[in-house]
Design brief:
CATH superfamily of chain B: Aldolase class I
Strand order of the largest sheet of chain A: 5-6-4-14-15-16-13-17
Order of helices and strands of chain B: EEEHEHEHEHEHEHEHEHH
Oligomer: heterodimer
CATH architecture of chain B: Alpha-Beta Barrel
Radius of gyration of chain A: 21 Å
Structural class of chain A: alpha/beta
Strand order of the largest sheet of chain B: 5-4-3-10-9
Shape of chain B: globular
Number of strands of chain B: 10
Radius of gyration of chain B: 19 Å
Structural class of chain B: alpha/beta
Number of helices of chain A: 9
Helix content of chain A: 25-40%
Helix content of chain B: 25-40%
Largest sheet of chain A: 8 strands, mixed
CATH class of chain B: Alpha Beta
Distance between the termini of chain A: 38 Å
CATH superfamily of the largest domain in chain A: FAD/NAD(P)-binding domain
Number of helices of chain B: 9
Order of helices and strands of chain A: EHEHEHEHEHEEHEEEEEEEEEHEEEHH
CATH topology of chain B: TIM Barrel
Chain lengths: 382, 264
């Protein structure tokens, strides 16, 4: 079997936000990096809405994830500034807060419970009356009961982000290889390379798996080397408007059902997202679109006037505890940045920084310690 | 493992000839993560857990079905999300094909706002599914007449609601639940409305054979702790029912002084 000669220091499987950002940051440290992906920036990163909020989707028991999310959110301004400079591209980054809205009194009770939970974690959120919410966002339905404002949160356009990351990575010397990784090559219990679907073997000193929901697909992964990552389908709608419709990203709890609407400077308005456990299915469905538009219209009645531009479905990489696995796998030579679930875009800067330190310096930064891949080992044995 | 009461009797739940040691049936909706769901299911001690067929892909890796398989918990597919008998029957048939079980928790919902069962569609679907050889466990209103009709068409259990799905309002009409229990010759499973442990205990004290719940556990601040509480509550309620409670009195009655073994 043919083997390529000039082996890179690092071979990354997957050119989504996580793989690309890590490639760029590692290459900046002088390593030779190759990224394998038949369709760069084509997976979940293409569908994601790009809300940058460590608190909005937080639930009880996920406190470690909150701290990782806050660390990443707060790295975004510097990360974006450097990225936009190196790539010469804009990313649509905004930090103008996220408004969360309760539609009826049951939803308000739910939001109030969340507010107290966040307060107990030291992340206070400002409680607003329905009137105050509508003063901020006049398009909100008159009936909304109240809300919370997370002023530190924001959003980014993941499509622009991946485009900028691709350019920055290539300008920093990263090689993009548009072939498909089929299997891992393991010799004497060490991961030494990747077999492509055409049979070619690419060897590298280190291999980073960052293939999102497909991270478990690779042939030759020893049992327990990669935590269980399952695809969680999300359908997302993209609308367009010529006149400003919404000032900032707005999440709603509408009769117990969750919806978000993310405006961009270029007139795009993203409405998401369903959460479906349907395996590797990315069909868009009538019911998915209906559910999103139903809830979006309850929250923002005027939204039906907008142009319908697109509906797409992506696969979130869901780990057993909703948090990513970052660091060396139990198999020497193989490293993981997988399982980011709903938070891939948010966690991109902190993941790229942590993985760079792990891959280049061989040390695990403190912020990544709770996310070591071996925390799932016990479960795998059960 | 069948539960044993303090007198040494085993007291299993029997549905359609199948025996279960636990009288707590779990649902899976609303869990914050697979990991938490798995821990909560284990803590609940459940041996039967219901899964919405419209919301899972039976062949997907890492799904809730994987968790049930790994933990040896029997899966009870349900028809959540169906509004007509036609959809429910079709969904049940797909479930049978995909999972190889003819047990089905039948849900036919009238509207999204209340998620209350549509009694006319429910009875129609139950009849069709029984005829097609299914073991049918219908989610029904707390209406004793409808419960009786469901039993008459051949359902293997009846599952009246305590209050609307996910509401946590407990048992709003205990009298109706008692009437259903009194007349039923199939197991009565209280389904929906449980908010906390006392609701589950009350269901068992009223004579229900089992309790089915999901949200009360999956959306609790600590799902694992609440699952443990529910396990104990169902056992406590069952024991209390079998122990035979004292009659209620208007005035006090001293517990020890003159009669019984408390004399000095």
């Amino acid at each position: 079997m043919p083997t390529s000669t000039n082996a890179p220091d690092l071979l990354i499987i997957g050119a989504g936000v996580i793989g690309l950002a890590t490639a760029w940051r590692v290459a900046r440290r002088g390593l030779a990096v190759t990224v394998l992906d038949p369709a760069p920036a084509g997976g979940a990163s293409r569908v994601a809405a790009g809300m940058l909020t460590p608190v909005s989707e937080l639930t009880y028991g996920e406190e470690p994830l909150l701290h990782l999310g806050i660390a990443s959110r707060d790295r975004y301004p510097a990360f974006v500034a450097e990225l936009e400079e190196v790539s010469g591209r804009r990313t649509g980054y905004r930090r103008d807060g996220i408004l969360e809205i309760a539609f009826d009194s049951d939803d308000l009770a739910f939001l109030e419970d969340l507010r107290r939970f966040r307060q107990s974690l030291g992340v206070p959120a400002e409680a607003l009356s329905g009137r105050e919410c509508r003063r901020l966002e006049p398009m909100l339905a008159p009936s909304v009961r109240g809300g919370l404002l997370a002023p530190e949160d924001g959003s980014i356009d993941p499509r622009r982000l991946t485009a900028a990351l691709l350019t920055a990575a290539e300008r920093t010397g990263v090689r993009m290889d548009r072939r498909r990784a089929a299997g891992l090559v393991v010799e004497r219990d060490i991961a030494v390379g990747v077999r492509l679907d055409d049979g070619t073997v690419l060897r590298a000193e280190k291999i980073l798996l960052a293939a999102g929901a497909h991270s478990g697909d690779l042939d030759g992964l020893p049992d327990g080397a990669v935590p269980q990552v399952r695809p969680v389908k999300g359908q997302v709608i993209r609308l367009r408007t010529a006149t400003p419709f919404l000032g900032r990203s707005t999440r709603g709890v509408v009769r117990g059902s969750s919806i978000y609407v993310v405006p961009r400077d270029d007139g795009e308005v993203v409405v998401g997202a369903t959460q479906e456990e349907m395996g590797f299915d990315t069909t868009v469905t009538a019911g998915g679109v209906w559910q999103l538009l139903r809830d979006a219209r309850e929250l923002l009645p005027g939204i039906t006037e907008l142009e319908f531009a697109e509906v797409s479905a992506g696969l979130r990489p869901g780990s057993p505890d909703n948090a990513p696995a970052l660091g060396p796998s139990p198999l020497p030579g193989l490293f993981l940045a997988v399982g980011h679930f709903r938070n891939g875009v948010l966690l991109t800067p902190v993941t790229a920084d942590a993985m760079t330190e792990i891959l280049v310096d061989g040390t695990v930064p403190e912020v990544a310690v709770p996310f070591a891949p071996d925390r799932f080992a016990e479960e795998a044995r059960a | 493992m069948a539960a044993t009461d303090p007198t040494g009797d085993t007291d299993p739940l029997v549905i359609a000839g199948e025996t279960f040691g636990s009288r707590l049936i779990m649902g899976t909706g609303g869990a914050p993560s697979m990991h938490v769901l798995e821990e909560a299911l284990v803590a609940s001690g459940t041996e039967l857990t219901t899964v919405a067929m419209r919301r899972v892909d039976p062949s997907a890796r890492g799904s809730v079905l994987d968790v049930l398989r790994r933990r040896g918990i029997r899966v009870l597919p349900n028809t959540a999300g169906c509004f007509t008998a036609g959809e429910a029957v079709l969904t049940a048939k797909l479930a049978r094909e995909a999972l190889g079980t003819d047990w089905i928790k039948l849900e036919v919902i009238a509207d999204e706002r209340t998620l209350l069962p549509d009694p006319v569609e429910l009875l129609d679907a139950a009849e069709q599914l029984v005829d097609a050889g299914f073991t049918v466990l219908p989610y029904t209103n707390d209406d004793p007449v409808l419960a009786r009709r469901l039993e008459q068409v051949g359902c293997a259990a009846v599952m009246p609601l305590g209050s609307p799905i996910g509401s946590g309002l407990g048992i709003r009409n205990p009298h109706n639940i008692e009437l259903i229990v009194e007349q039923a010759e199939v197991p009565v499973i209280l389904d929906a409305g449980v908010g906390t442990a006392s609701d589950a205990a009350l269901a068992m004290e009223l004579g229900c054979d089992a309790v089915l719940l999901a949200t009360a556990v999956t959306r609790a601040q600590s799902p694992v702790a609440m699952a443990t509480a529910m396990r104990h509550a169902v056992q406590a309620g069952r024991l209390a029912r079998r122990a035979g409670r004292i009659p209620k009195r208007r005035y006090a009655q001293a517990s020890s002084p003159w009669e019984g073994i408390g004399t000095s």
